[in-house]
Amino acid sequence: MGLLDSIESPEDVKKLKESELRVLAKEIRKKILEIVTTNGGHLASNLGVVELTIALHRVFDSPKDAIIWDVGHQSYAHKLITGRARDFEKIRKKGGLSGFPKRSESVHDIFDTGHSSTSLSSALGLLESRKRQGREGRVVAVIGDGALTAGMAFEALVNVSQIGLPLIVILNDNKMSISRNVGALSRYLSRLTATEHYQAFRRNFDAIVVSIPRIGRGLLELIVRGKRAVKAIFYKENLFSDLGFEYVGPIDGHNIPVLLSVLAQVKRLERPVVVHVMTKKGNGFPKAEEDPEAFHGLAPSCSDMPLQARPSFTEVFGQLMADLAQEKPNLVAITAAMCKGTGLGKMAKLFPTRVYDVGIAEQHAVTFAAGLAAGGLVPVVSIYSTFMQRAVDQVIHDVALPNHHVVFAMDRSGAVGEDGETHQGFFDIPLFKSIPNSIILAPSCAAEMETFLRFAIEWKGPVFLRFPKARVECDEPGCEAELVMGEGIFLRKRDKAFILVCALGPIAHIAARATDRLNHSGYPIDLYSLRFASPLDEQEIAGICSRYRAVAIVEEGSTAGGVGETIASILARRAVNVKILTLGFGQELPSQASREELLANAGLDEEGLFTTFNFFAEDVAAGRVDEAHPVLAR
User: Which residue of 140, 235, 294, 314 is 20 to 30 Å from 477, comparing CA positions?
Assistant: First the structure.
């Protein structure tokens, strides 16, 4: 039985001898590595903060002292220490632990997080609330150097200096967000650690502390003041000091005795403080240390995956961007710290000066793209659907209203899976379909991806492409058809069909299989691939739907504000009297599960659609147009 098995809460960490903490760190790393390589999840970021997590829970009294993890993808060690070790084997699985902090799991998870750069704002608000209510306890925000690139983090830093509360900011500096950090801030932080005089002093001072018997521990207590004094001599400019923070560091984020000493002193400060901690992403696992970007997140292992698996939509998009960049010299791409994740790695390798990684700064990415477009370039902004939520105002104000030609590639639209509620891509259609001058396209296969992307690059105005975190299906006959504004294509057209299924994006292929089975059962159903979420040709849609007794609309997104509502509104305005069924995801966001499980739970997999269409057809055939079957009310 190892030390980790005895840890039920942070109080158990406090009971360990200091010499045992290194053993605990080793066991935690082993556990994370074992489970993540099986379940998938965030590996390198979690391996990098093991010692820091142990030290935080050793010094502070969670949950009385609130520890807030920015993004939260580095909270695995935190989960193991706070009583969830026995459930850790089901992390990111259906019914298991979330891969991010989640209040419903533990009192030690202060906020539900999943997006970056929110910790400073929420921590400051929590601290102010506690002060006004006379409640005790420190508030600690752990934020990475990558997350600090977002404008929201700087807004919070300024507000901290205005209010002056003793917020403790742990700056976890690993030179990485997901892709390698870029920009002036990264260079600035590097300067704080790179001066030869400072590094020489640090090595000599640490050596002295270690070598002196009996009084070494006492001298170690002087580290904070000693380092600050040296930096006061050699660094005349310090962003954090200028903003009113005490600045401590940089310190070794893998040295537990140093961490404990510094954090214990910081805990007593009565003014805002930044503790600059240097960590190594992937620490303790050589492969992750060598390539932390590749080991940032792992997919679940699968022994029966075919050797020649179909490419993902991301891979198809990435290859097309690399190919189109060779054809079109004015084509450029922008990503927000997700170059490889969004498929732009190939283009970046071929044309490194034409791919801009702006860091975790989605708002800037969109307005930067507007400027590029205004100057005559064709920018493709590649950002996950869930992160495009962070830049809605910039899309409206800076791109759509002036009608700039910007292409948005929204990967991870629809059911995202194991990352849970914060990452589901359900809201892009409701958010963007009403924006002036904009077009939203949903390719269902590789052939349509090429057709739609070429169209988007040639169009003059904002265009959104939404596609899921999934592998492409084989092209259906007709998918290569020319794109006509606002119109879709029939994928199935049968004699005597009295129901029409309208499907958007790749879910059309699932609907095709379901309708094929129903056709064999005696219920001929036509299938229309919408292609467009917005705009829809109202006359075309109304004319097609009027030929049927009932219409079902299937989409992989929110039914509230989705394309189903749009079609229902069109048919109502045009007095097309048909029974309408809308299928998609409801108001309650699903927790972590595989994409296949999420679709099945929502009745959007083949079996679910087959069952629903079958009941729908029975009701329509029997003339029960005003009745709702329980299956249809899912």
Answer: 314
